[in-house]
User: Fold Exodeoxyribonuclease III from Sphingomonas oleivorans.
Amino acid sequence: MTALKIASWNINSVRARIDIVERFLREEQPDILCLQETKVVNDIFPGGIFHQLGYTHQILHGQRMHHGVAIISRIPIREDAESQWRFDWQDNGEARHVGVQLDCGIRLENVYVPAGGDIPDAELNPKFGQKLAFIERMTRWAEQISQPTLLVGDFNIAPLECDVWSHKQLLNVVSHTPIEVEALAGLKAAHDWVDLGRKFVPPPERLYTWWSYRAQDWAASDRGRRLDHMWASPEVAKLATAHKVHEPCRGWLKPSDHVPLVTEFEV
DNA sequence: ATGGTAGCAAAGCTA
Assistant:
C-alpha cells in the first residue's frame, strides 16, 4: 500500500494565481493537482514553475480566454487515445475535461461543468440548457464506466440543503435549482458514485467550496456554496483515508473564489 | 430590489 494524495482546485486563471498555487503545493504536497478554469492556452501555461516543484508530468487542455483544465503530477500519469480522454460533453469545443490513467489502476477524470448563466430556464437562457445537456452526456458516459474512477472538479451544482448558505433563498438560483439537483442525482446513480465530501463530512454539517467575490467580507457573511466535488467509484472510495476542503485558501492574497479539495488514498 | 467583484484582453463575455 502506498499513499496517494490528490487535489482539485478551480483556480480562476492559473497565471493570475501562480503565487498561491505554488504556496498550496509547497504546504500541502499533493501528488496530483487537477486544475479548472486555467484561462490559458497550452503554449503559455506556466509549466516551468510546476516542473521546478517536482510536478514534471503535465497534461493540459487549455483554450483562449475562458475555461481550460489541466492535471499536473509528480507521479506518472498517462493519456491513451487522446480523443478518449478529452470529452466534449457540451458538444461545442470548450475545454472542460481532461482525463488520465494512473499506474495504480485508477482512472482520474477532471471536469469543469458550465456555470449555466443566470436564468434557470432553458428556453430563456440557452446556457442553462447546455449545462443540463452536459450533465446528461456525462450520465451516459458514467453508465458505461468499466474502470475504478475518481471524478473531480467544479460541478457548478450544490446538491444538498447544507451545501448552500440558504436553501430557501437559492432554490431559484442557478447551481441549486431542483432541476439541476435532479440531473446531478441522475449522474450520481449512473455509476453508484460515492460523494467523498459527504462521506467525510456528513449532512447536516455545513460544507462550502466557493464564496462570491462580490461579498464585502466573504468570511463574515459566509454565503458559500459547495460547487466543487470529488466522486469515486465504490472500490476507490474504500481506499480514501482522509478528505478536506482548504477553506483558508479563500483568504490568501489574490484568492480564487473557489478553494481546493484534497483526498488521501492508500492504493 | 439591486448590485456588488474578478480575469482576459482590449469591449464585452464568462463567472
